Amino acid sequence: MIRRVLQLLLLPLFIPLRLVYADILRMQNATILYSWYRNKKEYEATSVGDDSPEVNKSWEQWQDDAKAMEDRCNKQKQTFIKVIIRPEPLRRWLKANQLANSAENRERYIQEVYQVACARGIELNSTQKPKSR
Predict the structure, then answer these.
(1) CB 55 within 8 A of CB 16
(2) Residue 107: which of 94, 118, 123, 125 has the closest Cα?
(3) How far apart are CA 62 and CA 42, in angstroms?
(4) Which tens digit of pLDDT belongs to each residue from 51-101?
(5) pTM for the predicted model, two decimal places
(6) 100, 94 Cβ separation under 8 angstroms
């Protein structure tokens, strides 16, 4: 009873605060898909011919950026899922969809891989740290 009364009294504050902090609340539960490369050879084979400005130019730069993104997601308690990109399946997918090898199309590819995995019931591992009690 007291809890219900408090909820009703605080409701006028809750609605505006929820609107102000909507982006923060939404991002807390976000799932971040990140293209992941197992080694330098696969990274270079996958990003060949892509001159997009957002693409890392070296394996070492990609590793640094990937680790920074993973750390940032863990700090923000976001789910960070590594989607391994293998060159041959990516090339087949690009050819089947008549797409160029670009950062944008690789993002489409990892989204599709994720959706197919979820549809097939494949368990995906994230790197989010377990919540402490």
Answers:
(1) no
(2) 94
(3) 12
(4) 566 666 788 988 898 899 899 888 888 888 888 889 999 999 999 999 998
(5) 0.66
(6) yes
